[in-house]
Specification:
Layout: H1 14-28, H2 35-40, H3 43-48, H4 62-66, E1 88-90, H5 104-114, H6 117-126, H7 137-143, H8 150-158, E2 160-162, H9 169-184, H10 190-206
Parallel strand pairs: 1-2
Helix pairs in contact: 6-7, 9-10
Amino acid sequence: MVSEDKKTSGYDTEATQAGVQCWVDMMKDGVSPSEASLEEIKGNVQFLSGRLGMYWCGSWFLSQVLDSDIKDDIDVAPVPSINGKQATVIHGLGNCIYKDTKNPEAAWKWVEFLSGEEANKLSAEMGAAIPAYEGTADIWVDKNKAYNLSTFVTASKEYSYPYPVSKNTEEWEQYQAEELKKAYNFQVDVKDACDTLAEKMNEVLASE
């Protein structure tokens, strides 16, 4: 999506457009809900209500599953390979301090605690998501043995890639949503949508 030096969009490349085409083809083949359907009812809601047989999600989705009616009827599977390659995006949560806080020392101590082993163990035991502290992921997996949660751990270690960003990610993500939506609604073909998106993204990246 973005070059390593953050200077150019990857949406005008053949490989990236092929990736988008996969999603469009699944919609056209009827094995994925249409864009209109997903706009009306989000994918996670459709899955938890039994309308979808599969849902692509992350470790954070566990708490919703445990509170659902389908919790005893599902499991976790690894992402499929495309052209013989598996890949998934990974990112973490950030703990921030308000720049004008009146209690900077206490705030730093709180952030230090949140990034430590004890807090990550608590997070793992509560099942929130895969904890970031090395060695605590197994606690999260063992807490919910009914599911193949080790799949997420394996993915994060063996075929994960950082979420693509630049200084003004939010700005070009708006263009991404607008242009790809046209492709997913079959208003324009994937190449036209992605080429237009690449042009708009490159303008944003050039201004960074």
